[in-house]
Design brief:
Layout: E1 9-11, H1 12-22, H2 29-38, E2 52-54, H3 55-69, H4 74-79, H5 89-95, H6 100-110, E3 118-125, E4 128-135, H7 144-160, E5 168-172, H8 182-188, E6 199-203, H9 217-233, H10 239-250, H11 257-263, H12 268-276, H13 282-299, H14 305-311, H15 317-328, H16 332-335
Antiparallel strand pairs: 1-2, 3-4, 4-6, 5-6
Helix pairs in contact: 2-3, 5-6, 5-9, 10-13, 14-15
Length: 337
Amino acid sequence: MESVTHQQTTIATWAAAVERALNSYTCSVEEVNQLFSNSAIDQTRLMDANYRIPVVAMTKLWRSSVLLTGDEAFGLRVAEFVSPTTFHALGYAAMASKNFSEAVQRIIRNARLVSDIAEMKLEMNSDGICLCFDLSEGSPDVADEAIDAFTGALIYMSRHYMHAEVPLLSVEFVRQLPENPDRFHTFFGVTVAFGCEANRFVVDPSVATALIPTYNSTLLEANEKVMEEYLQQTGLSSITEVVRGHIAAVLPEDPVLDRIAEKMHMSGRKLQRKLQSEATSYQKVLDSYRQEKAEAWLSDNQKSIKQVSDLLGFANQSAFTRAFKRWTGYTPKKTMR
């Protein structure tokens, strides 16, 4: 895990969901306002995505909210008050993704937009799709409710905004067993395990490639650009995202490693080391970018196979077809509608 050397923050719109949840209880306006004031959070800026709140302040808000409401499942209540705008452009990009697997990978790559407190990891096999949350080494203390809320929000968004079935196989939390775990079992639809080694959930593998009803390649591309600009402006871009941006700028010319590294003012070897620290490699980043673009363009019949091959920097159409089949298991022609 990467050691933390800067103050970690959370997007203010996440605190706005906390405020909406608090207002659904019998708390008075004065009590809610006092919570935000005591946590040093500016309530007038909660819908300002450029306002980043220190994680230590959010942790104080979470814990104070539990004390005020007396609800140990407060995080799950917050999850029910999220909307696509809670996660800025990431919410809309996830909704516009082609399938659940693609949406989850997009969330992992851009999770820093919401908060840079945790690292997310994805494991896919025949047993299921496992998404794991791991706090960065040296991170400040994080409230259990923040983890509950983010996990719950991912599932809630999938079910209520993306209209996608998310058959959960298991849900595990590091937090200790609450007094009333039934709230958690009911929310997720499975028996939730507590006191575990990691925060994670596993989804049935059958949903990996199932088309999401809200898929829209045009909106996806537009929101990808908004996310990229936001992460750059806030200094939250990961090395992976910076590399993807340079790949996009270089194409349709050949995006070789050394060329991208030169644009980032480092050697190819150093760039590979930095990518390895994010559990990836240059080839994986390049393949992921090319696959996303290829599937988006081909599925909407926006471009011919030859055009896609050229735009993605392949030497010829045959090379593109071989690569596409390696990524997906089927030919480009099968993707076209």
